[in-house]
Write a structure and sequence with these properties.
148 residues, 5 strands, 2 domains, Arc Repressor Mutant, subunit A, alpha+beta, 5 helices, two-stranded parallel sheet
Length: 148
C-alpha cells in the first residue's frame, strides 16, 4: 500500500492506494509518504474540494462488496450540498436503517464517499473524523448544506 497526504481545513488526511484503487482515508499524515499518479490526482482533487472548486470526485475507489458497496454507492450519489437520512438510504438499498448506519460507520473513504451527507431523521448521526460530529457539521457547512 502507498500513502500520501495533505493538511486541509478539516485537518490532516492521508489517502491510501492499493492495486490502483483508493482503499482508505486516514485522519493523519503518513509517516512515510509515497508517490503514484493516482495519489497525485486524488490529492489534487481533494485540494480542489477543500478550495470549493470540486463537487464530485472522479477516482477509482474500492467500493467493497454486498451491503457496504450498495450503501457506499448510494452515498456517492448524494449531490454536493445535500443530505439524505439513514432511512432514505435504507429504502434505496433494501436494508434496515441500522444496517445502513453501520455501513456508513465502516466507510473507509470518508469525504471521497460522502458519509458526512447522511444524517438521522431527527439527529445528526456520527462521524469518524477527529472532532466527530463537529467535523461532519463543518464539512456540510463547507458544502452549503442545510443543517438539521
Amino acid at each position: 500500500m502507498i500513502r500520501a497526504g495533505i493538511t486541509g481545513p478539516f485537518g490532516p488526511v492521508t489517502l491510501v492506494e492499493r492495486d490502483g484503487l483508493l482503499v482508505g482515508l486516514e485522519w493523519r499524515l503518513p509517516e512515510t509518504p509515497g508517490k503514484s499518479d493516482l495519489l497525485a490526482e486524488a490529492l489534487a482533487q481533494l485540494a480542489a474540494y477543500f478550495e470549493g472548486r470540486l463537487a464530485r470526485f472522479d477516482l477509482p475507489l474500492d467500493w467493497g462488496t454486498g451491503l457496504n458497496e450498495g450503501v457506499r454507492r448510494a452515498m456517492a450519489d448524494i449531490p454536493y450540498g445535500e443530505t439524505r437520512t439513514y432511512g432514505q438510504i435504507a429504502r434505496i438499498v433494501g436494508a434496515p436503517a441500522q444496517a445502513v448506519g453501520q455501513a456508513c460507520g465502516a466507510n473507509p473513504l470518508p469525504i471521497l464517499i460522502p458519509c458526512h451527507r447522511v444524517t438521522g431523521t431527527d439527529w445528526f448521526g456520527g462521524f469518524s473524523a477527529p472532532g466527530g460530529v463537529e467535523t461532519k457539521a463543518a464539512l456540510l457547512q463547507h458544502e452549503g448544506a442545510l443543517l438539521i
